[in-house]
């Protein structure tokens, strides 16, 4: 039989198709699957012919992109694209109970323990302190969503910028972006920033702020217009686009050196002209840049950008929704090194860590104290956040921390009774995410060696920089879906279950922003190597893709 690495019941034939992840072997502590990535449950019940599998757009849980065409299936399959196993609700709640016991949580927080600062009196303060310590920051604030977390960061940084600049007035009130006599409140970010593509311009509608778009040579000015179209990026992808580079920032910053703002593009969405670099309070750098295939700004450039921002009084903020993946991509030993250049960081717990939901803002103590106030103002401190916070904490520990060996007088301790009487030390380890990146790199190398596969797909980047890559297919959406269904029925391998059509039939050739390089693509997909699909043997990826390419080439 064949298996689907999604959810459901255990299939005994699994061992014929998967390889164990030995990244954590050799440690004294037992590594269990993440709370919602239970790899001991790797198959799901047979879906009857005609039943519909509800799969939302894979690029994230943000359904702004809409839904893909639903796929039908007649039996279980080896699922090459699904990276995360999600348990049924009842099993999820049981896992939460078990996690509470592991973490020693025996009382609910009340409104996020808003007024409690002592880590001994609040599990959530303990969780925040633990994450902050591993990131090398003074404090952290748990938030229920990343959108709320980054909005709070923008508000605080804008207020700080205004207060410390003698030439500026007090901060613009939230939601007030209409007054012509008011000081501009702006931040800078890449054209593919989540804030621009997937949050319905909340930064403008709710915060009264404007975005200065940087990071692509063709995102420039033409007279009074800005050559930037976010809808084109959502419709046709971002093939060939670079992440933010130091050169992009030098071009932006140079405008203030000669006293001219003419080279600063008009803001998005309201096409306002900033008077100087002083109008920009924050630079957001996403690590990795998800919409361009998990690409990373070169590390030496990140450090130089940080120094430049500091010199110019611009707050340097990290959109770290996938910072654990980025840290492994940079080859850093710990996420503390990755976090060092940034004043503030947003971290997501539900993506690579498998939590139900949840995020955290990290920064200095003053920043986090303000963030807690803004969290309450925005209605983000629910009566209790325990289900989300516990799943987040559990996912962080299981994916990112390992227990350091206990030693007494240089000797390892193997007696559990002795070890339990000592305080073991949890240390950060990038092994999980590094192994996923290596797996994806290895599989793509095997696929590139196959001429048939190479003829139908182009990966961007060609060599993965993290465990994420985007694929662009040289076929129409309908041809793709028809071939995928035949591959699944004939081989039991589901090559792709989530594919996005390019509205113009090619990747951004008709877009105003980016370099399409004359590549004709009819559809595209995102491929993340995660806890589920990383267990599939390498050969299954090649076999499935080879059959897919064969059917497309033959026009079947």
Structural class, from secondary structure content?
A: alpha/beta
Give the radius of gyration: 24 Å
Strand content: 5-15%
Number of strands: 19
The general outline is globular
Question: Could you describe the 3D structure shown?
Answer:
The chain is α/β, with parallel strands linked by helices and 556 residues long. The chain contains 17 helices and 19 strands. It has helices at 89-103, 123-135, 146-164, 194-197, 202-205, 230-236, 246-257, 299-312, 323-330, 335-339, 365-377, 386-400, 416-420, 431-448, 451-454, 477-491, 538-554; strands at residues 78-79, 139-143, 186-189, 210-213, 221-222, 225-226, 280-286, 315-320, 344-348, 359-363, 401-403, 407-408, 411-412, 426-428, 457-460, 468-473, 493-494, 500-501, 523-528. The strands form six sheets. It has a seven-stranded mixed β-sheet, sandwiched between helices. Helix 3 (146-164) crosses helix 11 (365-377) and helix 14 packs parallel to helix 17. It is globular. The chain starts with 77 loop residues before the first strand and ends with a helix.
Itemize the secondary structure elements and their pairings:
Blueprint: E1 78-79, H1 89-103, H2 123-135, E2 139-143, H3 146-164, E3 186-189, H4 194-197, H5 202-205, E4 210-213, E5 221-222, E6 225-226, H6 230-236, H7 246-257, E7 280-286, H8 299-312, E8 315-320, H9 323-330, H10 335-339, E9 344-348, E10 359-363, H11 365-377, H12 386-400, E11 401-403, E12 407-408, E13 411-412, H13 416-420, E14 426-428, H14 431-448, H15 451-454, E15 457-460, E16 468-473, H16 477-491, E17 493-494, E18 500-501, E19 523-528, H17 538-554
Parallel strand pairs: 1-17, 3-4, 3-7, 7-8, 8-9
Antiparallel strand pairs: 2-10, 5-6, 9-10, 11-14, 12-13, 15-16, 16-19, 18-19
Helix pairs in contact: 1-12, 3-11, 9-14, 14-17, 16-17
